[in-house]
Amino acid sequence: MKLIIIAGGKGTRLGLKEIPKPMVRINSKPLLEHQILLAKRYGIKDIYILSGYLSEVIVDYFKDGKKLGVNITHIVERKPLSTAGALKQLEKILNDRFMVFYGDTIMDIDLESFIKFDEIHKDSVGSIMVHPNDHPHDSDLLEIDGNCKVTTFYSKPHKKDVYYPNLVNAALYIFSPKVLSYIEKDVMSDFGKDIFPKIVENENLYAYKTTEYLKDMGTPKRLKKVEEDLKSGKVHRLNRSNKQKAIFLDRDGVINKEVDNLSDIDKFELLDGVVDAIKLLNKSEYIVIVVTNQPAVAKGFITEAELKQIHKKMDTLLGEEGAYVDDLYYCPHHPQSGFEGEVPELKIDCECRKPKSGMLVKASQNYNIDLANSWIIGDRYTDIQAGKNVNCKTILVQTGHAGNDKDKFMINSDYKVSDLYEAVNTIKGLK
Questions:
Q1: From CA 112, how far away is CA 212, in angstroms rounded?
Q2: Residue among 284, 286, 249 at smallest CA distance from 270
Q3: Are residues 138 and 104 located together in one domain of the fold?
Q4: Which of 134, 194, 229, 252 is catalytic?
Q5: Higher model confidence: residue 223 or residue 147?
Q6: How far apart are CA 42 and CA 44, in angstroms?
Q7: Any catalytic annotation for residue 252?
């Protein structure tokens, strides 16, 4: 597979004058070199670097790539064409599916896993890597269906008073050459603003969710943080090929105020301290995953589309304060019949409804999670039992139901605390 690195950044916010942004040194190596070595680690050695501003610095440093054990071809723009416009220059070269990096991101991604995901969707125009972040308001966002197909693309800037999912275009792609038919020659165009919305209207485009390290280092503050994370080993530890650890959160009564069979989006309110608690987790190396029973769907009290809107509200409220959850799993089933308007096909005894552990197991498979080094935080012993089933450590909070189903279970939680914020600080204190 060929790799295209779009490396036209100037680095204005970094105060650069003599080198282009992709040549910023991070722990003694240019950013581009970190990217090239990552690709090489996964057997990708045919690399095209698309540059423009101070391109001679890039060409002189890397030359043909032999010193790094790869084959590099340099393509220099005659005029700035932005991310998509630059790629159009390779139309006669790209005959098979290819990968695209942006030259201003530091990352350590399990590219093998990404390639395998794309192979499942070879009927598509491509696969794009996505993740949540702490600034969704100024990011390109998208929506996906249950099969990870992109259904809507929301280019920035975003409308106010609208709830959006915190699912961000991470700027790492695998494309079919067909993507080039959507790009005009010699016209400045951006993937997020100009190309993806058109593709989603006409063809299949898939989203690969990741919790791995992939960050833009375009400001002095971000650059400093990236350098610290590289030195500490955090960047590599978050690679999906390594076992990860997670904090599983129940939703109702833990994140938001308890409302029986919540179906009215206006009644969804975050509990005090939740934003600060989740922000602490976001700074840690724990993946934050919500696992929630939503039997109101099976009972006919709310549709899955309406439930999705509530989760968009949760993402938006958290995102406005710089917090996010990495993923959310919900169980729409309910085993008992007898509700007017119920959905018959959802009235089943499933494996995902807590106290069973299907949602935790699915998440562990998707993100390579070590369940024994993970936690579940809930307001009911139903949550605690789900965690105990897979050897997670457990914390019961005194918000929501506050463990009022204790008589149904012959178990105890590992810890009992007042709320989510105290739960997170309990975990931090146990390190």
A1: 13
A2: 249
A3: yes
A4: 252
A5: 147
A6: 6
A7: yes
